[in-house]
Amino acid sequence: MDQRAKIDTDGDGPPGTPGSQRSPGAAAEAGTEPRVVHRPAGLTSAEVAERVARGEVNDVPVRSSRSAADIVRANVFTRFNAIIGVLWVIMLVVAPIQDSLFGFVIVANTGIGIIQELRSKKTLDGLAVIGEAKPTVRRDGRAAELSTSEIVLGDLIELGPGDKVVVDGVVAEADAMEIDESLLTGEADPVVKRPGDPVMSGSFVVAGGGAFTATKVGREAYAAQLAEEASRFTLVHSELRSGISTILKYVTWMMVPTAIGLVISQLVVQDNDLKGSIARTVGGIVPMIPEGLVLLTSVAFAVGVIRLGRKQCLVQELPAIEGLARVDVVCLDKTGTLTEGGMDVTGLHVLGGADEAYVRKVLGALGESDPRPNASLQAVVAAYPDAEEWRCTESLPFSSARKYSGAAFSEGDGEESTWLLGAPDVLLPPGDPALADVDHLNEQGLRVLLLARAVHELDSPDVAKDARATALVVLEQRLRPDAADTLAYFADQDVAAKVISGDNAVSVGAVAGKLGLPGASNTVDARTLPADREEMAEVLDHNAVFGRVTPQQKRDMVAALQSHGHTVAMTGDGVNDVLALKDADIGVSMGSGSEATRAVAQIVLLDNSFATLPSVVAEGRRVIGNITRVATLFLTKTVYSVLLAILVVVSRIEYPFLPRHLTLLSTLTIGVPAFFLALAPNKERARPNFVRRVMRYAIPGGVVAATATFTTYLLARHHYTGADALGAETSAATLTLFLVSMWVLAIIARPYTLGRVVLVAAMGGAFLLVLAVPWLQDFFALRLVGTTMPWTAVAVAAAGAAVLEAAWRWVDRRFPA
């Protein structure tokens, strides 16, 4: 594969190559007269206007969130809202307003959900504008950054390392340009592109640069949908959402036959008045529906997005919050993550008696030879001025796979030379004396580049063979001030940190050691890693720092960790991280990273602060842990409602509750507490098997609550007689159900904090207020009659609470999460 740019000594190389940028004076000194090469100017403003008028615009809608209409539709038009809406209308016709309160609660809940999601959308849309990649488009001879939606057919779009190809096109200029098409074709090796070659949207540049002419825009582009999905705020698959969907499916199956049986028993079997029977039938059906569960899930996620947005963290896919909460291994790229992107040259060690002044000229010429220098070469450019009399005749841009770059020069005195600049342990054979100096410098956490004179042609596959070491360029990397605290956070949260870098392993280990990473002293050179996935996974499990990792190896390492059951997050900012970011469970990109990394990452840290990651992890844990808590509350209610309905149908007696009773109980033991619990801090790491973990508590809780309530109801039916007996029986049963439900809440609220204790006490106090205030007694039809039955209800509830406590402890031992 020809991985270099050939530059004609007459100056007729491809426009934009280093050879075409040399000064006339330098060319004259070299004995040649350059031809003037004109770069294509791109479209004119008039041509752009014509294409816009014809609709030849890149009009693929790139949205960071759902539209406002979609949000309203998703919150209003749900299966359970339809059921409750019908029941609400019925109750408004046949019963007092008190028995229709559940409908107003649903309206309020739906409104809260819509408002929170719209707030979330506003936050996301604002962040998406900040984080949007803007390709450089050449028009009227001038290059400017434009939004992807402003590109028109025929535009000339410039490309550099890390840039994503946003529309289909044909290469117009190429400067040793290598494009990775693996995200489209699965082919891992980059493809060298020359003028006239096609490029596809969705691919990205890994080395070199150039420009291409857009031939297909909008929905006609090959990967238009890929480009859209890569930057859209999506509600894609997540265990939490799929688990809730599974639960709701089973709830529906249970609810339909139970509700039918309840309707028949109340309207046909019992000889009650029609309106009373309808009211009690609706009272039995409504609590079966866990209507607030989906709402609170949406609200928790929306609030999470808003909180992270305030910290300049763009969540491109909603389940990323959930996914990062489940992460137990985070893979970190050193450059740009643990260290800041910039570097400084701190030393030049001349080898083999080379002339230092000459070496400085070489470094200056190398810096000038690359129009798109990486961070290391930028430091060299800043430290050593260009040798103007030197002319670059060939160039080899840096790539992460090669670990070096190079250039061939025609020197001012007519001499010609070829130079390489890159990793010493790649360019030099093992045992070379210079490597001892390199190791000593690497142990101090310094980065070292080797300047070597090549004896082979730059386009030779063996260009690095027999290269003569000339100088060591010492670079100091700037550690991120927040990196040490962030690594300490991960260690405290039992999240294993793996530093995976393309740099020298010893240097990477020294940097990690300065930051206090456990295991930093035992570094692994990735060139010694086994190719077998299982063997690689074993090495990864027992080590924390890896150097000289190629882009493909990063991808393989992520897969190896996943094969051992780990949930892996990958952070990075360079094109060499794209494949690993894409395959990781969660990809995290820096806002200053390449366009390609931002496109495939689920989370983008717009402020480039590694210290934001703990906030993302904490937010995910808060959401998942709290949704698990409140889901148990909602589903306990569903279980006891279904069981109570079944017991009533089998016993052929009146259903004990009116809708107002269960609205009151649901509000005090589920609705209000769940809202606060869903937004409370929670640092527990998310665990798998959401449905199993919720149902193992909800089923025994619901069974105990239904049994205790029905027992009290039967006892009350034998105790009370007379015209008002049903009201007294209902009040006693309500008291038992409230007390058992409060015990469920008290267990769910553990471990206790002052806020949770106050919350539980406030709900208990509110119920006592209803029992004590006459007009509230009348409004909710709750009046305890006598002393025997109320105390019996309390005793039954106490027994139920004891059984519940024992049952949940047994479940913890028998079915551990």
UniProtKB/TrEMBL annotation:
Q: Which GO terms describe its cellular component?
A: plasma membrane
InterPro entries linked to this entry: ATPase_P-typ_cyto_dom_N (IPR023299), ATPase_P-typ_P_site (IPR018303), ATPase_P-typ_TM_dom_sf (IPR023298), ATPase_P-typ_transduc_dom_A_sf (IPR008250), ATPase_P-type_domA (IPR059000), HAD-like_sf (IPR036412), HAD_sf (IPR023214), P_typ_ATPase (IPR001757)
Superkingdom classification of source: Bacteria
Instruction: Select a single GO molecular function from the record's annotations and give it.
Output: ATP hydrolysis activity
Report the subcellular localization: Cell membrane
Q: Report how it sits in the membrane.
A: Multi-pass membrane protein
Q: Identify one Pfam family in the record.
A: Hydrolase
Q: Which Gene3D superfamilies match?
A: Calcium-transporting ATPase, cytoplasmic domain N, Calcium-transporting ATPase, cytoplasmic transduction domain A, Calcium-transporting ATPase, transmembrane domain, HAD superfamily/HAD-like
Region of interest: Disordered = 1-35
Q: What is this protein called?
A: Magnesium-transporting ATPase
